[in-house]
Design brief:
This protein is an alpha/beta fold and 247 residues long. It is built from 10 helices and 8 strands. It is globular.
Length: 247
């Protein structure tokens, strides 16, 4: 049985004052039996978030594949471990679109993070044009094959399916859409990693909110959620965590 995992991605939002939200989120996480909960704030807030986390897992939104070197503005997996981050998101569609990250680059980042023992969430997803052209399954399973490292790494790997057309738009994939894609991802994971592919958690990430979370968590192979805007406040995020605990 795969435990549900709910991860909040603050993106380029938040400040020290907003860390006050963590206390209520951490309390909800402790009360949510069978659910793992984490927050990924901007780099500048990781250390102070950890100090206030009360056991809540805190992570990062990106990582560089190199251990160190002339990479201005980048942060390595070793640096994340030093500030007690426990997880990292790689390959988010916004990184792929804005920074032009390829599957190979995402895979290199994931390998570096996993080698350092960080739980690593590898994001995959299709554009609206790719879905309308009927290429959505091929695109996403291709990203799974190209972006995920091989077996044998120390950290835990997670996949997050985020239909690009549903991120920040208010649009949400239907349960049938989600079921189709998560089943395809599961198949690609089993093909790539064998038995381990059945243990990897697959999160849904696309405008997840309190009013649609329960329906999404009821879909087969939806093992949790990667939550954007609704993770910025406890009032919006906690009901999602509670919905996960009921499934």
């Amino acid at each position: 049985m795969r435990r549900k995992l709910v991860v909040g991605n603050w993106k380029m939002n938040g400040n020290l004052h907003q860390l006050a939200e963590i206390a209520e989120i951490a309390a909800a996480a402790k009360a949510a039996a069978g659910v793992d909960v984490a927050l990924c704030p901007p780099f500048t807030l990781i250390a102070p978030a950890v100090a206030r986390s009360n056991g809540l897992a805190i992570g990062a939104q990106d990582v560089h594949p190199a251990e160190s070197g002339a990479h201005t503005g980048a942060v390595s997996a070793a640096m994340l471990k030093e500030v007690h981050a426990q997880l990292v998101i790689v390959g988010h569609s916004e990184r792929r679109a804005e920074a032009g990250e390829t599957d190979a680059q995402v895979r290199a980042k994931a390998e570096a993070a996993l080698a350092r023992g960080l739980q690593t969430i590898v994001c995959v997803g299709e554009s609206e044009a790719e879905r309308e052209a009927g290429r959505h399954v091929d695109v996403v399973t291709g990203q799974v094959k190209g972006s995920l490292p091989d077996d044998g790494h120390e950290g835990e790997m997670v996949v997050a399916y985020e239909p690009i057309w549903a991120i920040g738009t208010g649009k949400v994939a239907t349960p049938a859409d989600v079921a189709e894609m998560h089943a395809a991802i599961r198949g690609a994971l089993r093909e790539r990693l064998g038995e381990r592919g059945g243990r990897i958690r697959i999160l849904y990430g696309g405008s997840v909110k309190a009013d649609n979370a329960a329906e999404l968590f009821a879909v087969p192979d939806v093992d949790g959620a990667l939550v954007g805007g609704a993770s910025l406040t406890a009032a919006q995020f906690v009901p999602i965590v509670e919905a996960a605990a009921r499934h």
